[in-house]
Amino acid sequence: MFEFFLATRNCNPGILHEVIDYFKQKLKSETSNFLHVKDVALIYDAMSIREGFWPDKSGKVYGYCDLGGIAQTDNEELAKGALSQLVLAVISVLYEAGGITVRSLTSDGTTTNLKTYELLGCSLDHTNIPSSIPHPDEPFINIHCIVDPCHLMKIFRNCMADLSLSHSGRIISFDYVKKLHEIQQIENLKFANKLSSLHIFYKNKKNSVPLAVQVLSSNVADALQFLQSYNNDFKNSTATIEFI
């Protein structure tokens, strides 16, 4: 056991083949207990790195584009991040390792990750969005591309709270959510929602998914719609209600 934890791992660019070897071994020796990995979801994220190069003691220089032999790169170009070839390579290597089929790709909604989806064959045109790409080794298998909904909910909440948004000339404002919370505090009751001070002053917990989801809930929208009929402060909250 100690040898396992103290062993040196090869973490050079490319595929971490020790992981692939682990899957191969498990699928061979524990087939019945390991069938759940025959169909998997692949979660990936791009990573920006500081441009530069660093020689090691052997004289090898690191910092240039290097995909570990997966694809040809310009060896004189300094690396800035990962490319879509890595995603395709992982999908292929898993399939070749023992028939492990990637059924879906999930990433957050950053520009780099959305661009990766485009390079893989997904269109981001809102009028025609093919949400899947063919498997590189088995074209009849579709791999579904998903933008992480939890991350999107946090982005939507942050945009509503931090930006000046509007739709068809109507303002979308987080202030209505704040006013709803204030009324609930004054009246010491809640209109069937979970709003609290944590939801309003969320900056220290901005990565909390429940706080974002509970703000953008139908219960909050229903409460705003109810107050719109009885309180002039909510008279122009229609766009905010529709956004939520």
Automatic annotation (TrEMBL):
<feature type="domain" description="Transposable element P transposase-like RNase H">
    <location>
        <begin position="11"/>
        <end position="83"/>
    </location>
</feature>
<dbReference type="Pfam" id="PF21788">
    <property type="entry name" value="TNP-like_GBD"/>
</dbReference>
<feature type="domain" description="Transposable element P transposase-like GTP-binding insertion">
    <location>
        <begin position="150"/>
        <end position="244"/>
    </location>
</feature>
<dbReference type="InterPro" id="IPR048366">
    <property type="entry name" value="TNP-like_GBD"/>
</dbReference>
<dbReference type="Pfam" id="PF21787">
    <property type="entry name" value="TNP-like_RNaseH_N"/>
</dbReference>
<dbReference type="InterPro" id="IPR048365">
    <property type="entry name" value="TNP-like_RNaseH_N"/>
</dbReference>
<protein>
    <recommendedName>
        <fullName>THAP domain-containing protein 9</fullName>
    </recommendedName>
</protein>
